């Protein structure tokens, strides 16, 4: 048997030696070792997300989900206030409500649970807050009693295509 192992390539021999010694390099049970490895793996941060990593066909869907997330968070915070203050959140309250909303954004229902979906939604939510600012999102909510996705996603961020309901010069008169 010694002759056979001497003829093997060095990498395979090294692997065999490492595997044969497995379990002897730590004091404690294998469960403790696995728990320690899991803790180490959990401490490694996820790589940062970039808008280019989110497929173009999903950006609008994600933005609409985030608009819903903001609306739900601000409605819940507003309802939690005393009656005399409903709709009159101070700056600190709406900032915390919006930032907390980005921790677990609403997932779009029609999409399958993609592995990176939660990371993408969380990143996009935070990016929207950073780009527009909490105050602008709060003003949209106050003005429309919701955070309208069409304002947030099409006009402000351009993550969704604009609806082209009418063309210029089509003879239609303005509603003004």
Automatic annotation (TrEMBL):
Keywords: Signal
Superkingdom of origin organism: Eukaryota
Signal peptide: 1-25
Descriptive protein name: Saposin B-type domain-containing protein
Organism: Symbiodinium natans
